[in-house]
Amino acid sequence: MCGIAGWVDFTRDLRQEVAAVKAMTDTMALRGPDAGDVWITEHAALGHRRLSIIDLEGGRQPMVAEENGQVLASLTYSGEVYNFQELREELVGLGHRFRTRSDTEVVLRAYLQWGADFVERLNGMYAFAIWDARSEELLLVRDRVGIKPLYYQQLPGGGVLFGSEPKAILANRLASRTVDADGLREILAGTKAPGVGAIRDMPELTPGYVLKVGRGGSTLSRYWKLEAHEHEDDLPTTISTVRELLEDIVTRQIVSDVPLCTMLSGGLDSSTLTALAAIAKRQDGSGKVRSFAVDFAGYLDNFEPDLTHPTPDSPYVHEVVEHVGADHNHIVLGNDDMIEASVRRAVVRAMDWPVLIAGPGSMDISLYLLFRAIRGQSTVALTGESADELFGGYPWFHHPEYGRPGTLPWTLAHNLGLPALFGPLSAHLDVPSYQADQYRQAVSGMPNLPGESGRDKQFRECTYFFLTRFMRTLLDRKDRLSMALGLEVRVPFCDHRLQEYVFNAPREFKTFDGQWKSLLRAAVKDLLPESILHRPKTGYPISNDTAYDTYVQEQFGKLLAAGDAPVLPLLNPTVVEDVRRDQTAAGKLTRIEVDMALHINEWLSAYDLALDF
């Protein structure tokens, strides 16, 4: 896992832009703390920052393939290809010779052998750029489900700037620095539209797509999408196939030349991965699986169940640890950790743009602190993202009435978090219409089976919406916050083979025992205690220390008192004046509103962004 950056420009000699390319690359230093380098030719420049995971000595980048002293292609690559060993064997059989043990060289050689279509052979999480010196063409590629990020900005004359994160592009003098009405709608709507970004003319590359850039212009093409087809297996076969896939996925994803762990909450998803990893590590003789969990000081003593947190994590975590024999680490966060100014700034810089879905602020900060603790002992972590989205683990799958017709399921709850502080801006930008438009776009791209209707169609729609929209925000959060600390997070439930198979399993298979996520539970029932198998869905723990709310309200009051905060034009002027007169009025705002205002302000200031709406 690494950070990449680059610049292709047919109107400039980029050999004169070494300092600029290095500046772009250096913004990715936290993603790749182990090494960094650039490769530059007349019209193409590739930069790379490396986090060493596999072949610690041989996987240096950018990696160049040559023949008879002539450069064929150069690669800068972030991620992991989990089937690289099979691909390597096939390429050796076709006459290729390898200098390293890395998956990086396999990706480069696979391109030389099969051309751009080689991406269809990859199993993994990745974002990379290949400069083909023979055709003078750049290839930008992102993995199928959007685990690894990749942003770009096209330039006049057919060129492009690109980077793992927007900050890499913003380091270039040619970068756009404006947040316009569309960018603000995307921030406020919570719909995670594919292929867009918050900064004007700086979209993310849509997952499953390839962007080719050459002298004749650019072309965007799709190499993968979820498709609907008849599921031919019966229930017992489906259950056993899910188990076989999970075993294969986890076995592939624990391959690492550096310490690896799991993130464990005591829920079904993370417990499944921890149990499977424990078995795989025993089988390969590499010892116990290491696990990490997070908690807040006093959380269990002061715990009060609610709709999203019916049970605390720690009792279930300890039960799983005992059951599978994990080497466990329980990270307890205090309020002083959560309000540390340097940590809050680091989180905003890591995220690169404000994220509202599933809650900003305290969740982001606690995740960052958890990742920081993990990085002290491990460099790779497995986490359970995508299991709820894939197997039906949210209430909207089973109670469509919880949503609002004509919008993506979670947007009704999302909108309730921003009533006062951002309400006028939302109305001015007509965010509800934007949300409705995003729903229509999602529906238009959704694969259907002929004749499918009623609850079956609704369940498939919900699965598609969560996999292609909601989940990508969760993946972005995990990637940014972990990579800012040099920690690689792997997501086994995002394996495209599992997603293709489970997406097409009938709804009745996923609820056959009258519970949510029946299919996953049945596939791993022999691995986990009954209490874990039947634990109610519980969200990520959130600090219940009121001192956190007091702190952010005080910071919000200071921001308003300064009078020149860049976020001020976005806020409800009536609320701003109320808080300026009486700071206790900030207590009437939701935590998400106050956190979001502080986050947007730091973001606009840190990157010197202009507003145009």
Textual characterization of the structure:
- The chain has 613 residues and is α/β, with parallel strands linked by helices.
- It has 3 domains: 221 residues, Aminohydrolase, N-terminal nucleophile (Ntn) domain (Glutamine Phosphoribosylpyrophosphate, subunit 1, domain 1), CATH 3.60.20.10; 299 residues, Rossmann fold (3-Layer(aba) Sandwich); 63 residues, no CATH class.
- 41% of the residues lie in helices and 17% in strands.
- It is built from 24 helices and 18 strands.
- The strands form 4 sheets. A 6-stranded antiparallel β-sheet has the order 4-5-6-7-11-12. The chain has a 5-stranded antiparallel β-sheet with strand order 2-3-1-9-8. A 5-stranded parallel β-sheet has the order 15-14-13-16-17, sandwiched between helices.
- α22 packs across α24.
- It starts with a strand and ends with a strand.
- 53% of the residues are buried.
